[in-house]
Amino acid sequence: xxxxxxxxxxxxxxxxxxxxxxxxxxxxxxxxxxxxxxxxxxxxxxxxxxxxxxxxxxxxxxxxxxxxxxxxxxxxxxxxxxxxxxxxxxxxxxxxxxxxxxxxxxxxxxxxxxxxxxxxxxxxxxxxxxxxxxxxxxxxxxxxxxxxxxxxxxxxxxxxxxxxxxxxxxxxxxxxxxxxxxxxxxxxxxxxxxxxx
Amino acid sequence: xxxxxxxxxxxxxxxxxxxxxxxxxxxxxxxxxxxxxxxxxxxxxxxxxxxxxxxxxxxxxxxxxxxxxxxxxxxxxxxxxxxxxxxxxxxxxxxxxxxxxxxxxxxxxxxxxxxxxxxxxxxxxxxxxxx
Lengths: 197, 131
What we know:
The structure holds two protein chains of two kinds.
Chain A: H1 2-20, H2 47-62, H3 65-68, E1 74-78, E2 82-83, H4 91-104, E3 108-110, H5 114-129, E4 149-161, E5 164-177, E6 182-196
Parallel strand pairs in A: 1-3, 1-4, 2-4
Antiparallel strand pairs in A: 4-5, 5-6
Helix pairs in contact in A: 2-4
Chain B: H1 3-36, E1 39-43, E2 48-58, E3 61-70, E4 76-85, E5 99-103, E6 108-114, E7 122-129
Parallel strand pairs in B: 1-7
Antiparallel strand pairs in B: 2-3, 3-6, 4-5, 4-7
Protein backbone atom coordinates (compact mmCIF):
# COMPACT_ATOMS: atom_id res chain seq x y z
CA UNK A 1 0.00 0.00 0.00
CA UNK A 2 2.75 2.40 1.05
CA UNK A 3 4.66 1.42 -2.11
CA UNK A 4 1.64 2.35 -4.30
CA UNK A 5 1.24 5.75 -2.58
CA UNK A 6 4.96 6.39 -3.02
CA UNK A 7 4.72 5.54 -6.74
CA UNK A 8 1.68 7.79 -7.19
CA UNK A 9 3.51 10.67 -5.45
CA UNK A 10 6.51 10.13 -7.72
CA UNK A 11 4.33 10.24 -10.85
CA UNK A 12 2.54 13.41 -9.65
CA UNK A 13 5.85 15.18 -8.89
CA UNK A 14 7.22 14.18 -12.31
CA UNK A 15 4.08 15.48 -14.03
CA UNK A 16 4.18 18.75 -12.08
CA UNK A 17 7.84 19.30 -12.93
CA UNK A 18 7.12 18.48 -16.56
CA UNK A 19 4.37 21.09 -16.63
CA UNK A 20 6.74 23.72 -15.27
CA UNK A 21 9.46 23.00 -17.81
CA UNK A 22 10.10 26.00 -20.03
CA UNK A 23 12.53 24.59 -22.54
CA UNK A 24 12.06 24.43 -26.29
CA UNK A 25 8.97 22.70 -27.63
CA UNK A 26 9.42 19.95 -30.19
CA UNK A 27 6.86 18.85 -32.72
CA UNK A 28 4.22 21.31 -31.46
CA UNK A 29 2.21 23.78 -33.46
CA UNK A 30 4.99 26.28 -34.06
CA UNK A 31 4.62 28.96 -36.67
CA UNK A 32 6.26 32.27 -37.52
CA UNK A 33 4.16 35.39 -37.20
CA UNK A 34 4.66 38.99 -38.30
CA UNK A 35 6.67 40.63 -35.49
CA UNK A 36 4.89 43.90 -36.29
CA UNK A 37 1.44 42.44 -35.68
CA UNK A 38 -0.57 43.34 -32.60
CA UNK A 39 0.24 40.86 -29.82
CA UNK A 40 -2.76 40.10 -27.64
CA UNK A 41 -1.31 37.04 -25.93
CA UNK A 42 -1.31 38.60 -22.46
CA UNK A 43 -2.41 41.81 -20.79
CA UNK A 44 1.18 42.59 -19.80
CA UNK A 45 3.44 45.11 -21.51
CA UNK A 46 4.48 43.32 -24.69
CA UNK A 47 6.96 43.75 -27.53
CA UNK A 48 4.08 45.27 -29.54
CA UNK A 49 3.67 47.94 -26.89
CA UNK A 50 7.42 48.56 -26.69
CA UNK A 51 7.54 48.99 -30.47
CA UNK A 52 4.51 51.25 -30.55
CA UNK A 53 5.62 53.63 -27.79
CA UNK A 54 9.22 53.78 -29.02
CA UNK A 55 8.10 54.52 -32.59
CA UNK A 56 5.49 57.12 -31.68
CA UNK A 57 7.51 58.95 -29.05
CA UNK A 58 10.81 59.10 -30.87
CA UNK A 59 9.12 60.55 -33.97
CA UNK A 60 7.37 63.18 -31.87
CA UNK A 61 10.74 64.04 -30.39
CA UNK A 62 12.24 64.41 -33.88
CA UNK A 63 9.54 66.96 -34.59
CA UNK A 64 10.20 69.00 -31.43
CA UNK A 65 11.54 72.52 -32.11
CA UNK A 66 14.84 71.66 -30.37
CA UNK A 67 15.62 68.98 -32.96
CA UNK A 68 13.29 69.76 -35.86
CA UNK A 69 14.33 73.41 -36.19
CA UNK A 70 18.05 72.85 -35.62
CA UNK A 71 20.22 73.58 -38.65
CA UNK A 72 22.88 71.12 -37.42
CA UNK A 73 22.78 67.49 -36.41
CA UNK A 74 21.80 67.44 -32.75
CA UNK A 75 24.01 65.49 -30.34
CA UNK A 76 22.09 63.63 -27.66
CA UNK A 77 22.84 61.37 -24.72
CA UNK A 78 20.34 58.74 -23.69
CA UNK A 79 19.86 57.28 -20.24
CA UNK A 80 18.03 53.97 -19.87
CA UNK A 81 14.26 54.23 -19.63
CA UNK A 82 13.13 53.73 -16.02
CA UNK A 83 10.64 50.97 -15.40
CA UNK A 84 8.40 52.20 -12.57
CA UNK A 85 5.79 49.45 -13.05
CA UNK A 86 5.45 46.29 -10.99
CA UNK A 87 6.23 44.16 -14.06
CA UNK A 88 9.59 43.03 -15.31
CA UNK A 89 10.11 44.96 -18.55
CA UNK A 90 13.35 44.98 -20.48
CA UNK A 91 13.72 48.74 -20.78
CA UNK A 92 17.00 48.41 -22.68
CA UNK A 93 14.87 47.30 -25.64
CA UNK A 94 12.78 50.49 -25.45
CA UNK A 95 15.93 52.64 -25.15
CA UNK A 96 17.58 50.90 -28.11
CA UNK A 97 14.49 51.22 -30.28
CA UNK A 98 14.21 54.94 -29.52
CA UNK A 99 17.91 55.41 -30.29
CA UNK A 100 17.58 53.58 -33.61
CA UNK A 101 14.63 55.67 -34.78
CA UNK A 102 16.34 58.91 -33.75
CA UNK A 103 19.74 58.15 -35.29
CA UNK A 104 18.29 56.75 -38.53
CA UNK A 105 16.42 60.02 -39.08
CA UNK A 106 19.74 61.68 -39.93
CA UNK A 107 18.87 64.59 -37.61
CA UNK A 108 20.45 63.23 -34.45
CA UNK A 109 23.67 61.59 -33.30
CA UNK A 110 24.48 60.04 -29.96
CA UNK A 111 27.26 60.87 -27.58
CA UNK A 112 28.55 57.84 -25.70
CA UNK A 113 26.79 57.06 -22.46
CA UNK A 114 28.57 56.59 -19.13
CA UNK A 115 28.87 52.82 -19.75
CA UNK A 116 30.22 53.25 -23.27
CA UNK A 117 32.79 55.88 -22.28
CA UNK A 118 35.18 53.42 -20.67
CA UNK A 119 35.31 51.33 -23.84
CA UNK A 120 35.95 54.50 -25.90
CA UNK A 121 38.73 55.63 -23.53
CA UNK A 122 40.31 52.16 -23.64
CA UNK A 123 40.27 52.17 -27.47
CA UNK A 124 41.86 55.66 -27.58
CA UNK A 125 44.56 54.68 -25.08
CA UNK A 126 45.36 51.54 -27.02
CA UNK A 127 45.74 53.48 -30.27
CA UNK A 128 47.76 56.35 -28.77
CA UNK A 129 49.77 54.91 -25.89
CA UNK A 130 50.82 51.41 -26.86
CA UNK A 131 53.00 52.43 -29.81
CA UNK A 132 51.43 49.65 -31.85
CA UNK A 133 49.61 51.84 -34.34
CA UNK A 134 50.70 54.06 -37.23
CA UNK A 135 50.26 57.59 -35.83
CA UNK A 136 48.77 58.76 -39.14
CA UNK A 137 45.80 56.44 -38.64
CA UNK A 138 45.13 56.82 -34.93
CA UNK A 139 42.14 58.62 -33.51
CA UNK A 140 43.24 61.75 -31.69
CA UNK A 141 42.86 62.29 -27.97
CA UNK A 142 40.77 65.23 -26.77
CA UNK A 143 38.37 65.25 -29.73
CA UNK A 144 35.34 63.66 -28.10
CA UNK A 145 32.20 65.75 -28.38
CA UNK A 146 29.73 66.38 -25.64
CA UNK A 147 25.97 66.07 -25.97
CA UNK A 148 23.72 69.12 -26.07
CA UNK A 149 20.68 67.28 -24.80
CA UNK A 150 19.90 64.35 -22.54
CA UNK A 151 16.90 62.07 -23.09
CA UNK A 152 15.06 60.67 -20.08
CA UNK A 153 12.16 58.26 -20.16
CA UNK A 154 10.00 56.42 -17.70
CA UNK A 155 7.21 53.87 -17.80
CA UNK A 156 4.52 53.79 -15.12
CA UNK A 157 1.37 51.71 -14.77
CA UNK A 158 -1.89 51.65 -12.88
CA UNK A 159 -4.06 48.57 -12.43
CA UNK A 160 -7.75 48.49 -11.64
CA UNK A 161 -9.61 45.31 -10.82
CA UNK A 162 -13.37 44.97 -11.14
CA UNK A 163 -15.39 42.59 -13.27
CA UNK A 164 -12.47 43.00 -15.68
CA UNK A 165 -8.80 43.82 -15.13
CA UNK A 166 -7.69 47.12 -16.59
CA UNK A 167 -4.05 48.19 -16.84
CA UNK A 168 -2.99 51.63 -18.02
CA UNK A 169 0.62 52.18 -19.01
CA UNK A 170 2.00 55.66 -19.33
CA UNK A 171 5.27 56.26 -21.14
CA UNK A 172 6.93 59.60 -20.62
CA UNK A 173 9.86 60.98 -22.57
CA UNK A 174 11.65 64.28 -22.06
CA UNK A 175 14.52 66.17 -23.64
CA UNK A 176 16.76 68.14 -21.28
CA UNK A 177 19.26 70.84 -22.22
CA UNK A 178 22.40 69.66 -20.41
CA UNK A 179 24.14 73.05 -20.10
CA UNK A 180 21.11 74.90 -18.77
CA UNK A 181 19.56 71.83 -17.08
CA UNK A 182 16.10 72.72 -18.32
CA UNK A 183 13.54 70.49 -19.98
CA UNK A 184 12.93 71.71 -23.53
CA UNK A 185 10.45 69.06 -24.70
CA UNK A 186 8.24 66.46 -23.09
CA UNK A 187 5.53 64.12 -24.26
CA UNK A 188 3.66 61.12 -22.95
CA UNK A 189 1.57 58.38 -24.46
CA UNK A 190 -0.83 55.95 -22.90
CA UNK A 191 -1.74 52.34 -23.57
CA UNK A 192 -4.77 50.81 -21.85
CA UNK A 193 -5.45 47.10 -21.81
CA UNK A 194 -8.55 45.36 -20.53
CA UNK A 195 -8.82 41.63 -19.97
CA UNK A 196 -11.40 39.27 -18.48
CA UNK A 197 -10.58 37.95 -14.99
CA UNK B 1 -40.81 87.10 -74.61
CA UNK B 2 -42.68 84.22 -76.22
CA UNK B 3 -43.61 81.06 -74.26
CA UNK B 4 -41.36 79.06 -76.63
CA UNK B 5 -38.44 81.27 -75.78
CA UNK B 6 -39.09 80.82 -72.02
CA UNK B 7 -39.25 77.06 -72.45
CA UNK B 8 -35.99 77.03 -74.42
CA UNK B 9 -34.27 79.16 -71.74
CA UNK B 10 -35.58 76.87 -69.01
CA UNK B 11 -34.27 73.76 -70.80
CA UNK B 12 -30.93 75.50 -71.40
CA UNK B 13 -30.64 76.41 -67.71
CA UNK B 14 -31.52 72.87 -66.69
CA UNK B 15 -28.77 71.52 -68.99
CA UNK B 16 -26.30 74.00 -67.54
CA UNK B 17 -27.25 73.03 -63.99
CA UNK B 18 -26.97 69.35 -64.88
CA UNK B 19 -23.53 69.88 -66.42
CA UNK B 20 -22.40 71.84 -63.36
CA UNK B 21 -23.78 69.15 -61.06
CA UNK B 22 -22.01 66.36 -62.90
CA UNK B 23 -18.80 68.40 -62.89
CA UNK B 24 -19.03 68.87 -59.12
CA UNK B 25 -19.93 65.21 -58.64
CA UNK B 26 -17.00 64.03 -60.76
CA UNK B 27 -14.72 66.39 -58.78
CA UNK B 28 -15.95 64.97 -55.48
CA UNK B 29 -15.69 61.44 -56.79
CA UNK B 30 -12.16 62.07 -58.13
CA UNK B 31 -11.14 63.58 -54.79
CA UNK B 32 -12.54 60.53 -52.99
CA UNK B 33 -10.70 58.20 -55.39
CA UNK B 34 -7.53 60.27 -54.93
CA UNK B 35 -7.79 59.95 -51.17
CA UNK B 36 -8.65 56.27 -51.38
CA UNK B 37 -5.47 55.66 -53.43
CA UNK B 38 -3.56 56.52 -50.27
CA UNK B 39 -5.19 53.68 -48.33
CA UNK B 40 -4.38 50.01 -48.62
CA UNK B 41 -7.15 47.98 -47.03
CA UNK B 42 -7.00 44.38 -45.81
CA UNK B 43 -9.61 42.41 -43.90
CA UNK B 44 -13.04 43.78 -43.25
CA UNK B 45 -12.84 47.58 -43.39
CA UNK B 46 -15.87 48.31 -45.58
CA UNK B 47 -17.67 50.24 -42.86
CA UNK B 48 -14.63 52.44 -42.14
CA UNK B 49 -15.11 55.52 -44.29
CA UNK B 50 -12.16 57.69 -45.32
CA UNK B 51 -13.40 61.21 -44.55
CA UNK B 52 -10.48 63.60 -44.84
CA UNK B 53 -6.75 63.73 -45.47
CA UNK B 54 -4.20 66.41 -44.66
CA UNK B 55 -0.44 66.35 -45.05
CA UNK B 56 2.09 69.03 -44.12
CA UNK B 57 5.83 69.19 -43.55
CA UNK B 58 6.27 70.22 -39.93
CA UNK B 59 9.78 70.89 -38.62
CA UNK B 60 11.23 69.02 -41.58
CA UNK B 61 9.11 65.88 -41.26
CA UNK B 62 6.07 64.92 -43.32
CA UNK B 63 3.07 64.77 -41.00
CA UNK B 64 -0.16 63.15 -42.09
CA UNK B 65 -3.60 63.39 -40.52
CA UNK B 66 -6.18 61.02 -41.93
CA UNK B 67 -9.76 61.13 -40.69
CA UNK B 68 -11.79 57.93 -40.67
CA UNK B 69 -15.34 57.27 -39.58
CA UNK B 70 -17.03 54.09 -38.48
CA UNK B 71 -20.17 54.08 -40.62
CA UNK B 72 -21.64 50.97 -39.03
CA UNK B 73 -23.79 50.75 -35.91
CA UNK B 74 -21.30 48.47 -34.17
CA UNK B 75 -17.97 49.04 -32.47
CA UNK B 76 -15.20 48.15 -34.93
CA UNK B 77 -11.66 47.12 -33.96
CA UNK B 78 -9.11 48.07 -36.60
CA UNK B 79 -5.34 48.11 -36.94
CA UNK B 80 -3.44 50.72 -38.90
CA UNK B 81 0.04 51.82 -39.79
CA UNK B 82 1.78 54.21 -42.15
CA UNK B 83 4.21 53.23 -44.87
CA UNK B 84 6.70 56.00 -45.71
CA UNK B 85 8.07 56.38 -49.23
CA UNK B 86 10.70 58.54 -50.89
CA UNK B 87 10.49 60.33 -54.26
CA UNK B 88 11.00 57.06 -56.11
CA UNK B 89 8.26 55.33 -54.06
CA UNK B 90 10.77 53.18 -52.17
CA UNK B 91 10.21 52.51 -48.46
CA UNK B 92 12.44 54.74 -46.38
CA UNK B 93 12.26 52.91 -43.06
CA UNK B 94 11.49 49.57 -41.49
CA UNK B 95 7.85 48.59 -41.51
CA UNK B 96 5.93 50.20 -38.70
CA UNK B 97 4.17 48.29 -35.95
CA UNK B 98 0.45 47.78 -36.46
CA UNK B 99 -1.43 49.98 -34.04
CA UNK B 100 -4.76 48.74 -32.66
CA UNK B 101 -7.76 50.99 -32.26
CA UNK B 102 -11.46 50.63 -31.46
CA UNK B 103 -13.98 52.84 -33.19
CA UNK B 104 -17.40 53.20 -31.62
CA UNK B 105 -20.48 53.23 -33.86
CA UNK B 106 -20.43 56.50 -35.81
CA UNK B 107 -17.15 57.65 -34.25
CA UNK B 108 -14.74 59.77 -36.26
CA UNK B 109 -11.05 59.64 -35.47
CA UNK B 110 -7.84 61.23 -36.74
CA UNK B 111 -4.89 58.94 -37.42
CA UNK B 112 -1.73 60.96 -37.20
CA UNK B 113 1.56 59.74 -38.61
CA UNK B 114 4.98 61.40 -38.51
CA UNK B 115 7.57 60.36 -41.05
CA UNK B 116 10.73 58.87 -39.54
CA UNK B 117 13.08 60.86 -41.76
CA UNK B 118 13.06 63.99 -43.97
CA UNK B 119 13.62 61.62 -46.93
CA UNK B 120 9.97 60.54 -46.71
CA UNK B 121 7.95 62.53 -49.22
CA UNK B 122 4.96 60.23 -49.70
CA UNK B 123 2.97 57.71 -47.71
CA UNK B 124 0.39 54.95 -47.75
CA UNK B 125 -1.99 54.22 -44.90
CA UNK B 126 -2.50 50.51 -44.27
CA UNK B 127 -5.82 49.67 -42.69
CA UNK B 128 -6.67 46.23 -41.40
CA UNK B 129 -10.08 45.14 -40.16
CA UNK B 130 -9.27 42.49 -37.61
CA UNK B 131 -12.84 41.11 -37.50
